[in-house]
Amino acid sequence: MVDTTVHLMRHGEVHNPAGVLYGRLPGYHLSDRGAAMADLVARTLAGDEGAPRRDVVTVVASPLQRAQETAAPIAAAFGLDVVTDERLLEAENHFQGKTFGVGDGSLRHPEHWPYLRNPFRPSWGEPYTAQVDRVTAAVHAARDAARGHEAVLVSHQLPIWVTRLALEGRRLWHDPRRRQCALASLTTLRFSGDRLVGIGYSEPAASLLPGASQVAGA
Predict the structure, then answer these.
(1) What does each C-alpha distance from 173 to 113, 161, 211 come to in angstroms?
(2) Where are the beta strands (DSSP E) in the chain?
(3) How many CB atoms are located within 10 Å of the residue 207 CB?
(4) 31-37 — which CB contacts under 8 Å span 24+ positions?
(5) Structural domain boundaries, residue 43
(6) N or C: which end of the chain has fewer CB within 10 A?
(7) Chain segment 1-51, per-residue pLDDT in tens
(8) CATH number for position 40
């Protein structure tokens, strides 16, 4: 059996001074710190930060600007082009473009309350199962393209997290505060042939953003 590794990477920190849930909205690019995080992950994977050089032969990203900007230095480090895959998109969300909260956020307005009726689906956006299906299909395509080597797929927190939950046989509904998927983190899937044999997690850019998981956005 040939061993293949697929890294699901969350994009770096986004410039979002208004603190909105930007979702799939265009124009949200990396902050200066987010760009530094992407560069650090690229250097780490390329073996420039003391770790062994990884055998990356494929770099794929969501079409959203923040994911493309995160993938760019990684692709450059390995002399590759970034492949765009819409299956890696952020989840659809009714609260996209709004601030989320009770004070000055959207939850103070009763017209939004019906969207919270079913947290298990969830009722405010794309079903968890739909996210898992499309991200898993993107993972399998990248595994086939990188057979015997490694692939990096840059996506977004929620699609990555629910995909990991599904692969680990856990329930998909969850407390968002307990997601293990920090900015610029790597959720690493190891395959023997087509069989998933291991799941790992690392934060190569943690030193740049100690509170990464608390930053607004996805």
Answers:
(1) 19, 10, 23
(2) 3-10, 56-61, 82-84, 150-155, 186-192, 195-202
(3) 9
(4) 33/208, 33/209, 34/66, 34/69, 34/70, 34/183, 34/184, 35/69, 36/12, 36/205, 36/208, 37/12, 37/13, 37/70, 37/183, 37/184, 37/205, 37/208, 37/209
(5) 3-214
(6) N
(7) 899 999 999 999 999 887 888 888 888 999 999 999 999 999 999 999 988
(8) 3.40.50.1240
Beta carbons of 197 and 190 less than 8 angstroms apart = yes
* C-alpha distance from residue 165 to each of 13, 72, 113, 176 (Å): 23, 28, 27, 13
Alpha helices in 78-172 (DSSP H): 128-145, 157-167
Confidence grade of residue 215 (pLDDT, cut at 50, 70, 90): very low
Structure tokens at 171: 């329930």
Residue 86 has pLDDT above 90, yes or no: yes
How many domains is the chain partitioned into structurally?
1
3-state secondary structure of 191: strand
The single-letter code of the amino acid at 159 is: P
